[in-house]
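User: Hey, quick favor. My workstation is busy. Could you predict this chain's structure for me?
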Amino acid sequence: MDEKIIIKFDNVTQYYTEGKTILHNIDLTINKGEFVVLIGPSGCGKTTLLKLINGLVQPNEGYLSIKGRYLKDWNIIKLRRDIGYVVQQVGLFPHMTVKRNIEYVLDLENETQDIMTEKVRR
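Assistant: No problem, here it is.
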């Protein structure tokens, strides 16, 4: 496994109803330390990509691997604790800043202040 590859979509296709393909043959590699932004019109598959990464749905076709392991092989709770993303809509606690939302989750995981500061900085 290439240690720098964090997320890899390999020919992923996702559909919800017959004839309604949301993602078609997606090949995407996200390397460690990369900052990725998904931009596009409503219904183009941005949320579906995030749902796949977070294990909320499994790909209909193709493979998705995270840190060298296929999505289906992950403990879903562990996966969700290891991955964080910010969505356009209101997040965990709308009255708190993004920084404080991130710190809150890290605090639940008993991270040290130094680690929290570093993760928030990234």
